[in-house]
Amino acid sequence: MCALFGWLDYKGIVSDRLLKKLTQALANAAEERGTDASGIAYVKSGKVTIYKRPKPAHKIRFNAPNGTRAVMGHTRMTTQGNEKFNYNNHPFYGHADVNFAFAHNGVLYNDKELRTERHLPNTQIETDSYVAVQLIEQQGKLDFDSLKSMAESVQGSFCFTALDENNTLYIVKGSNPMCLLHFTELGLYVYASTESILKKALQKTGFHKYPFEVLNVDESTILKIDRYGFLSGSTFEVQESFRFGKWTDWYDELEEEYYSQQEELLLEMCSCYGVTEDDVLLLLDYGYSADEIEEMLCDSNLLLETLCAVRCEEEFCCE
């Protein structure tokens, strides 16, 4: 449970001050899906620059330089690769026909197999996500074809983003969530993994007052937004997630660890939504999954109705 977030400004209407505020607001809101590490990527003087730290977003001051036209961000909940070693954190550098930054929300479980099969170079980076960068680099290009090939090679859950040195943003949508907004009058695209992250950030910065269009990003879609705001797309074949042979036990253990950490994060963040740890534990004990509870936290009415119903049933069963 990580989060992707960012924006692309293609008109230059919005002030640098407000865009910096938007970056920080998005990062802070994205903590709902990960507090182990946070980072952003942007282009400075024609070069991709990455700033990341093994800290929650609210403890980091994200300050891209004036004139930045796009920011690509990530907040991390660790599943593979110790976040204390900053090279394991997102975004990652990539090098093809253009230099780029790359981030991933999800879990890949055939990364070691791919490194062996495709003869990918050894690296100190332990994170499963980095195999996607290596697959793109091996093809020597960052474009629809290389992203399609990569997306059809990896197994697991994912949504990927990439930002190249020309301020072109790519979104590769697998089974993991992604929300994209277009403020046409402002010449601004804003995205995040969930609607709740966007709502919090837009309200914090005042962007919710401006008209915007919600752009649906379907599974198996690759979107490209260039520095002029032109949007184009392609598709890829969704791979069936097979779980057999030597990968079964490894993936089951990883999945169990992932959801255990997700529950811990819910307990840590629940007070921000006006509920207690006991409320979250009650829902978990009743049988709701961490994903379902996370959705409830973003809908206060649903959360209160569910808690009320569970408590009533618990009282009834005790009589």
Rg, rounded, reads: 20 Å
Query: What would you call the structural class?
Result: alpha+beta
Report mean pLDDT, rounded to a whole number.
Answer: 89
If strands are numbered along the chain, what order do they take across the biggest sheet?
Answer: 3-2-4-1-10-9-11
| Beta-strand content estimate | 25-35%
H/E element sequence: EHEEEEEHHHEEEEHEEEHHHH
Could you give the count of β-strands? 13
Could you describe the largest sheet, including whether it forms a barrel? 7 strands, antiparallel
Specify the number of helices: 9
Q: Percent range for helical residues?
A: 25-40%
| Unreliable residue stretches | 242-252, 254-259
Shape: globular
Task: Describe this entry's structure for a reader.
This protein is an alpha+beta fold. Helix content is 34%, strand content 25%. The strands form 2 sheets. The protein has a 7-stranded antiparallel sheet. Helix 3 packs across helix 4 (144-151) and helix 7 (277-286) crosses helix 9. The two termini are 39 Å apart.
